Amino acid sequence: MTERLSEETRKTVLQPLFDTGWGMVDGRDAICKSFKFPDFTDAFGWMSRVALWAEKWDHHPEWQNTYNRVTVTLTTHSVDGLSTLDAKLARKMDGLFAHDEGRGQ
Ligand SMILES: C[C@H](O)[C@H](O)[C@H]1CNC2=NC(N)=NC(=O)C2=N1
Questions:
Q1: How far is the CA of 86 from the centre of ligand 1 (A)?
Q2: What number is the average pLDDT over the span 9-17?
Q3: How many independent structural domains does the chain possess?
Q4: Does residue 87 fall inside a structural domain?
Q5: Other CB atoms within 10 Å distance of the CB of residue 105
């Protein structure tokens, strides 16, 4: 079962994500990041790839797309806060972003 991240686990699990540009959402136990792509096709292609993993893991992002930008919020509704699934999906998003665009982070 998915559990809410404990205080100890948070530091080790979340810090590497903060280092790649994720941040805490004000007033919510959630993380967010804004991804910028060269154009809409690249943004939507990345979203499509992320969507397949989200479906596979039954863990879905809150996200918003405007042209070449995708703003993502991750949290786990069933535990009313962050779980390891959010970190796992965030890492996958970062990995696909770096891979798709051929740029490291
Ligand atoms: C019924 C289904 O398993 C749940 O609604 C899943 C689907 N995707 C989900 N996504 C997220 N981000 N949090 C959840 O708690 C969640 N629960």
A1: 11
A2: 96
A3: 1
A4: yes
A5: 10
